[in-house]
Structure formats: C-alpha cells, structure tokens
Amino acid sequence: MSERVLVVNSGSSSLKYQVIDAADGSALAVGLVERIGGAGGGRITHTVDGEAHRSDVDVPDHGAAMAAMTAAFAEHGPDLDAVGLVAVGHRVVQGGARFGHSVEIDDDALAIIEELSDLAPLHNPANAAGIRVAREQFPDLPHVAVFDTAFHLTMPEVAHTYAIDREVAKQHRIRRYGFHGTSHAYVSREAARMLGKAPEDVNLIVMHLGNGASACAVRGGISVDTSMGLTPLEGLVMGTRSGDIDPAVVFHLSRTAGMSTDEIDDLLNKRSGVLGLSGRQDMRDLVEAAQAGDEAASLALEIYCYRLRKYVGAYTAALGRVDAIVFTAGIGENSPEVRAGALAGLDVLGIELDDAANEARSREARDIATPGSRVRVLVVPTNEELEIARQSIEVIGG
Ligand code: ADP
C-alpha cells in the first residue's frame, strides 16, 4: 500500500502543506499559502523538485486557500489523483484532555476540536476551518487529526496540575497541556534509535527551540513533564514570549499601568522574550549582536540560556536518570552558542559537551558530547510533517 499523505497545517492566516511519503520520509511537494484573509491579497509558494513556484492569489478564506493549493498541484504537479494519497493528516494544536492519540476525523471529532477553541482561541478555529474545507475538497480520503498536546497527555497528575482551587480549575479545564508534542514524539524516538535502545528504555530531556520553545522530560519514551502549560506562554524564554513569570505581573500591569487583558496578552506573547529584551527576535541576529558587544543582546542570550539550564536541572531531578539531552528545531539544531550556554557548568550532572563537535555544522543527527560524558548530548533535526504522516498511516491502519 502507498504511504503517501497530504499533511495540512492550517493557521489563522496561512496554510502549509506537504505531500509526504511516510515510508521513506521524502516530501514530494511543499507549499505555503500566506496572508489568508489579508487586505492586500495572498501569495502561494509551491515547491516541487527543488523548484519554487510563486504567485499572487486571492485568498479571502481557507476555502480559497485550499483551492489555490489544488490549483498549484494541477499546474506544477505532482498530480494529486495519481500520487496515491491514502490520507490527509491535519495538525491540530489543542486536543485538551480528550485526545491522547491521533484520531480519524468524523463530525463528532470535528465538533470537539471546535469546542476546544476556548482553550486555544488563536489556533483551533483555524485548524478546524482547514479540516472543514479539506474534507470537502477530498471527500473520499480519510482525514486524521494529530494534536500538539497528545504526546503530553501521559503527564502524571502531579506534573500537570496547577496548585489553584480545584473546582475553578475543573470548571474551566485549567491544567498543563503542553505543546510541540508531535516534535517531542518524533525526536525522542529518533534519539532512542541513535542510542541503540528501545524508546521504552530511555530517559531524555528534549529541548525544542524554535520561535516557540519547550522542554520535555521523557521517561521510557513517554512525556512525564513539559514546560508549556495551559497555553504555549509558560516555560522557556522564546522569540517573543516571556515564558515563566510571576502571574502577579499581570495584576500589577492591570492595576497600576491600566493595561487591558488583551494588551497584557499581546505584551507577554508577542512583545516579550528575546525580542522584548533586546529588540531582536531572530536568534542569528541576537548572537551576532551579542558577539559585537551589544549589552542588551548579551543579557537576552544569557537569560535565554539560564532558563534552559534551570529546566535541565529540574528535569534531571524529575527523571532521576537521564540518558541524553536532545536539541531540536531551528535554534536547537543550528546554534552552538545556545547549546553551549544551556549546558555550561553542568558537568556536575555528568553532562560534558565536546566543543569541536558542538561547533561543527551539520544537518545530520549527531552526538556532541565528549566520549566520557555520562549523559549524551544529541542534536536531532525534527520533522513534524513526517510524524503527522506516520501517525495518519497508523490511525488508518496502514
Ligand atoms: P518555528 O517555531 O517557527 O518552526 P524554527 O524551528 O524554524 O521555528 O526556528 C526558528 C528559529 O531558529 C529562529 O529564531 C532562527 O533565528 C533560528 N535559527 C535558524 N537557523 C539558525 C542558525 N543557523 N543559527 C542560530 N539560529 C538559527
């Protein structure tokens, strides 16, 4: 049976898609429709065989974006009818306490995804819109939802429960859900393979460091703690998010600065993190500025790495035994400065980075610890689309 899956990531203003062969991991086409619903019209970039085809398109809504996608396949290939698609896999951000696994989407599942929108108002409505139009466009294929939260539903109560009034928490479904689960699942399985062990036999601390960033404590292949919480705001310092702060900062801003809830939400999610600290969001710019002597950039980088170091310590305590620290996503895969900063001084925990291996550039998965390091340090490129394709195949019974 073919294992080719159309993977769809439908956001509020963009639609990303890939046709992936889950058997060998190859992408037959990669595309992006941008500025959905934007005033100035949208744009599609459709890449096949390394060649990017760009054009302006009118995309007032997700239906139009999906139509632009199928038109691009018709014009530039591959032929969607001939490629042997067996499923459409959809990224869904919030699966709540309901979805601990990927599921085939029927009307009930879609209704639950929409109903979870109060927990992820920026994401689930857009994910649901993408599912709706894709089911119309591809009525004969099974559609599968793969949730960012699902991998973390294995967290024990002690890790996912906030110490607030239990009734209030229950009524409003307030608990830690965690995100980036698709990446943490993929990367931890790859890491186990690199260590030559079964996933059930390894304990890992996975650092997914992209624009958003989260750490995950993995015991025996399953998530037992993660740094993001009810929303992706908690935990590590990110490109534009503050990560952990005293919640009273919110009351203080409300009472003394007269800021509204939306203004504080915007401040902490979009104008904080390394951007708020230094005026730079991109880690490449930040490192460059820090190396050129910019003090705000240096401090931002230090704070970023210090937070990572604290989570390594915390998750070492939570796990007891750690086989490897695993770095992934844009920053984790590409920034030797951040990896070195995050692990500085942690030889006390048996973590010793090999400087030359850390500095060497590569796109491959690799071990960058010294031969004698008790805890291995791995860099593993993530591939969330491939994980969505694989899970889609699994769900439809391939
Ligand atoms: P997203 O969360 O949007 O998927 P990515 O995983 O692509 O993000 O990561 C984006 C981040 O990766 C940006 O902060 C970018 O600066 C950083 N990054 C990409 N390449 C490098 C590099 N060579 N060195 C340092 N940081 C990098």
Write the layout of secondary structure elements.
Blueprint: E1 4-10, E2 15-21, E3 27-34, E4 42-48, E5 51-57, H1 62-76, E6 85-92, E7 103-104, H2 107-115, H3 124-137, E8 143-147, H4 157-160, H5 166-171, H6 181-194, E9 203-209, E10 213-219, E11 222-226, H7 248-256, H8 261-270, H9 273-278, H10 283-291, H11 295-319, E12 324-328, H12 329-334, H13 336-343, H14 355-359, E13 366-367, E14 376-379, H15 384-395
Helix pairs in contact: 1-3, 10-11, 11-13
Bound molecules: adenosine-5'-diphosphate (ADP).
As a percent range, the share of strand residues is 15-25%
Biggest β-sheet: strands ordered side by side in the sheet: 5-4-3-2-1-6-8-7
- Topology order in helix (H) and strand (E) letters: EEEEEHEEHHEHHHEEEHHHHHEHHHEEH
Main beta-sheet annotation: 8 strands, mixed
Give the uncertain stretches in residue-range form.
Answer: none
Give the rounded overall mean pLDDT.
97
Helical coverage, percent range? 25-40%
Number of helices: 15
Distance between the termini: 8 Å
Number of strands: 14
Radius of gyration: 21 Å
What is the overall silhouette? globular
What structural class do you assign from the helix and strand content?
alpha/beta
Bound molecules: adenosine-5'-diphosphate
